[in-house]
Structures are given as C-alpha cells and as structure tokens.
Amino acid sequence: MKAGRKNLQRACQDGSAVTLAEGESIMQVVTLRGSNLIEVTDGEGVKSLALFPARFQKSFWIKNGNFVVVDASGRDEALESGSKIGCVVSRVLFHEQVRALEKSGEWPAIFKSASNSWAGAEETTSQVAKEENSDEDDDDLPPLEANTNRNRTFDVQSDTESDSDS
Fold it and tell me: DSSP character for 88?
C-alpha cells in the first residue's frame, strides 16, 4: 500500500475532529452516477454533481444516504461556465464523525432526520429481535400452507403392533 493511501486511512481512523474550512459544506449523497461522479444535496435541498476523487475510490466506499464534506467554493462559477460538476468531495464522514458534528452545532437542520435514521436502524433491529422472541400468536396472519414442492415421506405402520394386542 502506498504511503498516500495509508496516511489517508490512518487520518480517518484517528477520529480527528472534523472542522469545516471556508467554502466547505456537508452534503448527503443522493445517487451514484458512475465512475467518479455522485449527486449530492446540500443543506438547502439543492442538488448538484460532485467529483469523487481517485484517491478515495479504492479506500472508501460510499452509498446513497452517506454524508460527505464537499469543497463548493467554485460552485457558482463552474455552473455559470457550463460545467455540470459543481464541487469536489474532500472528506467522507463516518458515523462517529456525524455524531460529533451534530453535537457541535455545525450540522444542517435538513439532515437531522436523516442522521437519526442511522441510530434508529439499530433500535429497530433490537425491537424486531424482541418481537421474534415473543410467544404471542399472530392472529393477523393467515395460516401457513403445506409446501407442495417437497415430497412427503409416508410413515408405514406395521401390523405387528395390532397383532400383539390381540
């Protein structure tokens, strides 16, 4: 592994506090457009295309709903010149970093419900596990039907038991 990637991963694993520089903003990934383009939405709900740099491609994997820090300083100028790409991803945010930003007050209000869904997912899985362990009957569900795709094994009862009784 080259030193650049190793240092990049080490910096993210340290859990260093995320500070936003001038021109940087927090955005949520809406869709992945392919290769190194992603569609993001900012704190006001405006969607734009962002460039996901090659240095991140084999180190970090992002999916819809993840949060990234984007350098959008030249966004207006790029859109005026006719370029579709308005910003560049400078950092991928992990769950711990998102929680730290929420506590610090730098988190946009529009994303508060989206970030709570991460924490809510953990709670819902524990609730589902509790519901599975309950002994209550599910009266709302129809009864299970027999599986017609399997052959039934027939139990052959011998007449020896009936002969011994007499």
Answer: E
